[in-house]
Design a protein that fits this description.
17 strands; alpha+beta; single chain
């Protein structure tokens, strides 16, 4: 059925009101049905008419929302809800360039490519609310329109739930913010930049070739959704081989456009921000926000207290410097930028590096584009045209800027210094990295087996329900991952934690903060699961039922608790040390590591361990007088002893695989499933060998046990500090079991 806009219905209602008023002077009051949505109660004396309309009421914490009857007072003209708020908003500013840019055009109309977002008729055309084909604009729009009530409140937008971005990616399940995202998504992406380069005949990989057919690609204004969705929709130019943050998830319930902005005034709901960001006094202070997940110096200026807004500004200045140097050196034409004058980039005619008034003209547009410069300029513009970039997805913008500088640097004789700048956050907040991006190719859904530790919402769900379910992928963890109240920053409480072995363990005095770390930093396997897989197989029996079991990454908690957790493989007949007890003040996760950056509190280590003043020198720490690796010295750090024994175990595994099984084995720490067939028998994991089709699958129980412990030590880089004696014991026992020569080596005692 063809959609009929509501405003004609309301106008028809007003006409009927006139008729009702005349009749009311001569007869008793009565209720007249005006339309299916409007009823009018007519009093004997018509001074005020009460109209009851069915409206959509937004949900609040006290009211679930829905459709309700809303009485609206009328004195002559209909009083529209939120009219005053809307009238003062940018959407209603009839004097703005956004609605008047085409006044002197010929023909005098808003063209098809612009009508969708710069006029109400154009938006209704795009929606198909005027009876036209949905998803496209069929005709130019007339001048004189702003974004009125009807643009967002109609029968189509009431059910609108998705948006398709310039990259072609459709985002679904949006709810009310789907209306905002139709326009606030930009008009270009990685796709359009690559297309412009290809269309200029420069798709052959020559990044520094100049073409008069290549121009500047403009993201357009206020592309907030492109910033927020990051690599999901690829609104910025993403360089091949680089990983980027996905959708920025703020804490609930402030995660969508309409959560953070008043939908009618468009203003940020500052009072809501100040509940958690308690240092804010006024809206202008928003630029100073910097969360505990931003503990690196992105722009390298030495200031890690400034807001993320200023980190972005610093990186953009560095990018502009790189662009100007590149333009002069490679294209032999200077380039300058003016944010208010299309096409934004102009030739620096006098070489002073400034966009002078006489240079900012269409006839002086920059015209010596190369693919490398076009990509950087696009990202420069992306970082500038979303005024709320620092809040919508600041880390995505930081990555785009950093990568653009890095790419330009490859062509500069004097590169811009990035040595102090940082692209990636510390682990828990490194949303661009594999720990959070591994599932993007699978639809962005993290399975239940992984979601507890690899999504922002997985741990809270586990804390509440005691189980994990599939969750959407996220860009790192956020405040609400660990804090059950982000205004008081109290933590989810785990008085004890269940490990893969089934052991239920807790830090001393049920330390809530450190127990929370144990929920994820415990590994995923144990002695129990290895023995379960092996069953009754003989030690040297090859079986297709065996497969490599991976402890997983950073099982520091299992190492810390030693035999209490049985995270490593413990050999029958041997005894092992339990929880490593350090001195009182430095005995738990948060006492030794910064809670948010995760970095070791090295300055405190040095108070007792002389010379341990950096991450590198921590490996010199030694408290044992035994020669564990049998090399004749007892002065090297325990970390060095562990590394030596791990190397010996790898050699012993390779010898065993070749001599006993008849198949060579090689290891790659960065590629699942880690162990592969040594096809050419050179003992090295060559690139053509590291693939799933070449996975090692001739396991025996003896080799599996050794490989499990080898991986265990490899994946806990702090094992030497977490519980060195436990690690040395499992390495020694693995070497003995697989037949290595342990002459001169000493196993740490259990007591």
């Amino acid at each position: 059925m063809k959609y009929k806009p509501k405003w004609p219905h309301l106008l028809f209602g007003l006409l009927l009101l006139s008729t009702v008023a005349l009749v009311a002077c001569a007869q008793e009051p009565e209720t007249v049905e005006v339309t299916r949505l409007v009823t009018v109660e007519a009093p004997a004396v018509v001074e005020q008419v009460v109209v009851t309309r069915l409206v959509e009421v937004p949900a609040t914490s006290e009211d679930p929302g829905g459709v309700a009857e809303l009485p609206v007072s009328m004195t002559g003209d209909l009083v529209v809800p939120y009219m005053a708020q809307w009238s003062a908003s940018p959407h209603a500013d009839s004097s703005a360039t956004a609605f008047n840019y085409w006044n002197n055009a010929d023909p005098a109309e808003i063209p098809i490519r612009c009508a969708k977002c710069h006029s109400t008729p154009g938006f209704l055309d795009f929606l198909g609310a005027d009876g036209s084909t949905a998803g496209m604009v069929d005709a130019a729009a007339p001048l004189g329109s702003t974004v009125t009530c009807e643009a967002c409140h109609n029968e189509v937008t009431a059910h609108l739930d998705s948006a398709t971005f310039p990259s072609g990616v459709e985002v679904t399940g949006l709810g009310p913010e789907a209306r905002c995202i139709q326009c606030h998504q930009g008009r270009a992406s990685t796709v359009q930049v690559n297309e412009s380069i290809a269309n200029a005949g420069l798709g052959d990989g020559d990044e520094d070739a100049i073409s008069e057919d290549l121009g500047f690609t403009n993201i357009h204004y206020y592309a907030a959704a492109a910033t927020q969705y990051g690599t999901v929709t690829k609104g910025g130019y993403e360089y091949p081989g680089k990983a980027y943050d996905a959708r920025f998830d703020h804490v609930e319930p402030y995660s969508t456009c309409v959560d953070c902005h008043n939908p009618h005034t468009l203003e940020v709901q500052f009072d809501e921000c100040a509940v958690c960001h308690t240092n804010l006094r006024q809206a202008s202070d928003l630029v100073n926000i910097r969360m505990a997940g931003s503990l690196v110096d992105y722009d390298g200026d030495g200031d890690m207290n400034e807001g993320v807004y200023y980190e972005i500004e610093g990186l953009r200045e560095m990018l502009y410097q790189a662009m100007q140097a590149y333009a002069v050196e490679v294209t032999e034409k200077g380039i300058v930028y003016d944010s208010h004058s299309h096409p934004y980039f102009f030739i620096d005619s006098n070489g002073n590096g400034v966009a002078d008034d006489d240079e900012v003209a269409g006839s002086n547009r920059f015209n010596a584009w190369t693919p490398r410069l076009a990509k950087a300029a696009y990202n420069f513009q992306v970082s500038l045209k979303d005024t709320g970039r620092y809040a919508h997805g600041g880390k995505y913008i930081i990555q785009l800027l950093y990568d653009s500088i890095e790419d330009l640097n490859t062509a500069l004789t004097e590169p811009v210094d990035l040595s102090r700048a940082r692209r990636i956050d510390h682990g828990h907040f490194a949303g661009s990295e594999q720990a959070f991006r591994n599932w993007d190719a699978q639809g962005g859904i993290v399975p239940a087996t992984c979601s507890r530790c690899h999504t922002a919402v997985g741990l809270p769900f586990f804390a509440a329900e005691g189980v994990a379910i599939s969750q959407p992928a996220s860009s790192g963890l956020n405040c609400a991952t660990c804090h059950n109240d982000v205004s008081t920053f109290t933590l989810y409480e785990f008085t004890e934690v269940t490990f893969p072995s089934g052991a239920r363990l807790s830090n001393a005095d049920q330390d809530i903060e450190s127990n929370l770390c144990l929920v994820c930093h415990q590994g995923r396997e144990s002695t129990v699961s290895v023995n379960r897989l092996i069953g009754g197989l003989a030690d040297d029996q090859v079986s297709e039922n065996l497969r490599f079991l991976n402890i997983h990454y950073f099982a520091a908690g299992a190492t810390l608790f030693g035999t209490e957790a049985k995270g490593a493989y413990e050999y029958a007949g041997q005894t092992y040390v339990g929880r490593n007890v350090h001195i009182g003040a430095f005995d738990t996760c948060n006492e030794c590591h910064d809670t948010h950056s995760l970095e070791v509190k090295i300055s405190q280590c040095a108070e007792c361990h002389e010379g341990a003043v950096s991450m590198e020198t921590l490996s010199t720490i030694r408290i044992s007088n035994l020669d564990h690796d049998g090399n004749g010295t007892t002065t090297e750090g325990i970390a060095v002893e562990i590394a030596a024994m791990k190397g010996m175990l790898y050699e012993a595994m390779q010898a065993y695989a070749t001599q006993t099984i008849g198949t060579g084995i090689v290891y790659s720490s960065a590629r699942h499933p880690y162990f592969f067939n040594d096809s050419n028998s050179n003992g090295v994991a060559d690139p053509d060998e590291i693939n799933a089709a070449n996975r090692f699958n001739n396991w025996t129980p003896r080799l599996l046990r050794a490989a499990y412990n080898f991986q265990y030590v490899s994946k806990d880089p702090g094992a030497f500090a977490h519980n060195s004696n436990y690690i040395l014991q499992i390495l020694y026992d693995s070497l003995v079991d697989i037949g290595a020569d342990t002459t001169g080596m000493m196993r740490p005692p259990t007591q």
